[in-house]
Amino acid sequence: MTGNIKVPSVFLNAVKSQTKQKEVQEATAISTTASGFLHPAVDTVYLPDSTTIYKLRFHDRWLDLTGEIGKEPVINYRFTDSIIITAYQRHKKTYVDAYSLNPNVHLTGITALRMINRQHFSIGPYAGYGWNGKTFTPSVGISLQYSFIKF
């Protein structure tokens, strides 16, 4: 869902479908990559059938990793991340920034979408001058308006 949004309604509908929320008006998608090096502790286990198994383990704030390399290798891991998203307005434009607290994660893309429900018609009070067929006179009342420009 990240990257350039060619069809905003498709992106927003996908978010609504996945979150099961029909009233979604804003969505932010972030893509990341994680890379780095780790030096796991290695234990060698010799089994009775002359098989050697190497057990690996590594733990830090962002990654828990355990594994065995032997007849049937397996690696278990749990990756943790915290992504901070900020949204702000400058010069009537909305900007979205994000960063990861995990030093091994690099944000590769961020896409933000805000759907604005523009209502062109409105009903409201009216005060001004109007033509009564003979002359301009002050008038007040309720009017139906169509907005070309909103500010």
General description of the model:
The protein is mainly beta and 151 residues long. It has a domain at 30-109. It is 8% helix and 56% strand. Strands 2-3-4-5 form a four-stranded antiparallel sheet, with no helix packed on it. Strands 1-8 form a two-stranded antiparallel sheet. A two-stranded antiparallel ribbon has the order 6-7. Strand 3 and strand 4 form a beta hairpin. The radius of gyration is 30 Å and the shape is rod-shaped.
Question: How is the topology of this model organized?
Answer:
Blueprint: H1 8-19, E1 26-34, E2 41-46, E3 52-59, E4 63-69, E5 74-79, E6 83-90, E7 93-100, E8 105-114, E9 121-131, E10 136-146
Antiparallel strand pairs: 1-8, 2-3, 3-4, 4-5, 6-7, 9-10
Give keywords.
151 residues; mainly beta; four-stranded antiparallel beta sheet; two-stranded antiparallel ribbon
Distance between the termini: 32 Å
Radius of gyration: 30 Å
Low-confidence stretches: none
**How many helix segments?**
1
Q: How many strands, what sense, and barrel or not for the largest sheet?
A: 4 strands, antiparallel
Oligomer: single chain
| Number of E-state strands | 10
Percent helix range: under 10%
Order of helices and strands: HEEEEEEEEEE
pLDDT averaged residue by residue = 80
- What structural category arises from helix and sheet content? mainly beta
* Beta-strand content estimate: over 45%
Silhouette: rod-shaped
**What is the strand arrangement across the widest sheet?**
2-3-4-5
